[in-house]
């Protein structure tokens, strides 16, 4: 005869799978919003940039310089892209470096939470922040007369945002694995990001063939181009080449992150 052993009073049921993941996403969201200054500038900075660009370039119509688009059509797309970079690459790499140095990652590793749930939770949090950023930028662009994306492009836009966010998150984790301490994190992150953003035409279209060829093989320009296409055309279909480049860089970032990521602080 078997005897059922009751669960100890006050002992919580073990969380599994989706419940653990949801708990981690909720934790990351609560942590983010409990730092209102950081949250405020995360959303306000790209909005201010696109508002300034609206005042500077709002009167420039469609031209060959902007690949047949108006200046603001171009900048709504590229500023949306750079806001995703900030949320999914820059902030993630800096946060992970700080958490590792403060011993938070070491304590997380000692809990029953699987590493996969921890990083997928971070990814989901970054995607949520990125979507809010892109929506705010789109609204400000609409105030300056920029059309909303065509309904036929919404699936491509959603896929581009999710794949781009995932790729830049894995690259952020990979870069965090190379950072020795939290003080060095902002410098290392910007050293990688700053030249990529400029050669990829984020703030000014690049018409140099050789430079465009180099930038097209790197992750930022394909992301810019895929968003520009999604925001400004009504042709159904996906930018397979741009998405393929993002996928390859995301896979590369994942490989580096898995092989080199450390949970413990580095010895100085």
TrEMBL record:
Location in the cell: Cell membrane; Membrane
UniProt key word NAD: no
Membrane topology category: Multi-pass membrane protein
PROSITE patterns xref list: ABC_TM2
Residue ranges of every copy of the ABC transmembrane type-2 domain listed in the record: 37-264
Membrane spanning residue stretches: 39-60, 72-97, 118-144, 156-179, 191-218, 238-258
Keywords: Antibiotic resistance, Cell membrane, Membrane, Transmembrane, Transmembrane helix, Transport
Top-level lineage group: Bacteria
Main location, first listed in the record: membrane
One Pfam family per UniProt: ABC2_membrane
Family, similarity comment: Belongs to the ABC-2 integral membrane protein family.
The protein's name in its UniProt record: Transport permease protein
Protein species of origin: Streptomyces chlorus
């Amino acid at each position: 005869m078997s005897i059922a052993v009751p669960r100890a009073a006050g002992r919580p049921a073990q969380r599994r799978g989706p419940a653990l993941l949801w708990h981690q996403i909720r934790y990351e969201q609560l942590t983010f919003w409990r730092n209102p200054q950081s949250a405020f500038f995360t959303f306000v900075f790209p909005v201010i940039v696109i508002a300034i660009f609206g005042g500077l370039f709002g009167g420039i119509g469609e031209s060959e310089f902007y690949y047949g688009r108006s200046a603001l059509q171009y900048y709504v797309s590229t500023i949306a892209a750079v806001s995703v970079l900030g949320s999914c690459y820059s902030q993630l790499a800096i946060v992970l470096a700080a958490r590792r140095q403060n011993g938070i990652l070491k304590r997380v590793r000692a809990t029953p939470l699987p590493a996969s749930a921890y990083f997928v939770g971070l990814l989901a949090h970054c995607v949520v922040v990125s979507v809010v950023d892109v929506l705010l930028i789109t609204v400000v662009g609409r105030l300056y007369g920029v059309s909303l994306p065509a309904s036929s492009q919404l699936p491509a836009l959603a896929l581009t945002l999710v794949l781009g966010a995932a790729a830049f998150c894995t690259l952020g984790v990979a870069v965090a694995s190379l950072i020795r301490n939290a003080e060095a994190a902002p410098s290392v992150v910007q050293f990688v990001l700053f030249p990529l953003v400029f050669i990829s035409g984020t703030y000014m279209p690049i018409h140099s063939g050789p430079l465009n060829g180099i930038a097209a093989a790197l992750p930022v320009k394909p992301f810019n181009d895929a968003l520009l296409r999604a925001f400004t055309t009504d042709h159904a279909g996906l930018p397979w080449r741009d998405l393929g480049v993002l996928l390859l860089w995301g896979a590369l970032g994942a490989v580096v992150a898995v092989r080199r990521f450390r949970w413990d602080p580095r010895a100085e």
